[in-house]
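Sequence in, structure out.
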Amino acid sequence: MNRPAVILVMCGSSIATSTMAAVKIENEAKKRGVKVTVKKGKVADADVLVESMRPDIIVATAVLKPREDVPVFSGVPLLTNVGQKELFDQIFSTIANLKD
């Protein structure tokens, strides 16, 4: 993919946990040499944010129903550090398989 992958990180308020998760994703992307654009938002605004931001994937630290239009990953491992490597592998594998 020639453009940076757009990752939408969402939590309940778009302040604390989404910021923590976004920083971890950005740092991991740098380590892996993957270009990403990370944006944040509230889970309650998911439909509007998906329409306006057109993310390639969503990482949610709060409960978000699965979507048919964009892959959704639970961001809880980014908060607990349990399963974080596996989550990163899933996220970056998905990005590697994206088409422009």
